[in-house]
Amino acid sequence: MDIGIDAIGFYTPHYYVDLVKLAKARGDDPDKYTIGIGQDQMAVAPATQDIISMAANAVDALPSARLDGRLGMVIVASESGVDESKAAAITVARLTGLNPWVRAFDIKEACYGATAGLLMARDYVAAHPTKTALVIASDIARYGLASGGEVTQGAGAVAMVISAQPRVLALQDDAVAYTEDIPDFFRPTGMTVPVVDGHYSTAAYLDFVTKIVGQHQVQYHDTITDYAALLFHLPFTKMGKKALAALTDSVRLGQRLTAASQLSRQVGNIYTGSLYLSLLSLLCHDKTMQAGDRIGLFSYGSGAVGEFFSGILAPGFADHIGQAAVIQLLAEREELTIPAYEQMFNAQIPLGDAPAAFPPENSPARFTVGGRRDHARWYRDTTKSMTEGD
């Protein structure tokens, strides 16, 4: 029985910054950003978007027929959580009107969390073939204005329905995972930006990818030539090029990695969702991919956990990735001036539980953050005439 991704939904905030303009504002050569890092644009999340609203918007992009009474599990993976106790999955399920007879919870392990959720969901469906699961990766990458990591910021969410007889990607039972306790990245409780050793983290990433893919070849007797495409977690797109170069000099795989990097170049780093944004980008931008093609996926989360696994493209996969909606979402975004971006970056909901209120967001987004009262955030749904709690 095939089990895997049956549908993909994507959301990114309505605002972005052009990185050539940001480079000039920071006194840097634009090639440092567009070539050295491999980014062209960076999504910017206003105070009216957080991981819950973005996750709900990504779910809203899914075909409603895939979220029926068969749904038995809802998982949100994030390292940008807004509550230390309550799972974002619970609020997302309510906002989007999902079947309440589900198991809902969150997963946290840096950028690896969505992969843990995806493979857990696959195992759940294997044990309950008539059920489906929903896995949502939602994150906001923030490093600070004029910081070393500023150009690798971003925001967005990817939602995936996992089912038997999937219509996008059948996941193979060949995952190889590796864990090692390393100090490359932290965001201690109470801090709004992480502490990261960029050079060490890059070296660890490359060490993990060569070690894990090598072990995969030992266990499953595969070679790089068995894959139509290799995808990687992309904190920035140049990282994917470095990872591929560590494994092969294949021109064919390099061309497909370029296609798989296009959406990341426009959105930036979305942590747990970056690998799956790369999958979506490949399927949207490379029209030579065919049913039956095998795709290798490398997931990495600082701290660190890495995993390599594969999937087989299903017949008719292109009809179930929402390509038109992705194109429209990106086309409708509003470019921010650098001062407007800096103002938006600083105008976030403050830590703690003090009351806060925001006016409606001027965007096509269905779900937005309305503010905070009685210690909790509340959300607007533009399809309803009244805001939550009014």
Automatic annotation (TrEMBL):
Database matches in CDD domains: init_cond_enzymes
Hydroxymethylglutaryl-coenzyme A synthase C-terminal domain mapped to chain residues: 177-247, 255-319
Top-rank lineage group of the source organism: Bacteria
InterPro entries xrefs: HMG_CoA_synt_C_dom (IPR013746), HMG_CoA_synth_N (IPR013528), HMG_CoA_synthase_prok (IPR011554), Thiolase-like (IPR016039)
SUPFAM superfamilies, sorted: Thiolase-like
Domain Hydroxymethylglutaryl-coenzyme A synthase N-terminal: 2-164
Name by which UniProt lists this protein: Hydroxymethylglutaryl-CoA synthase
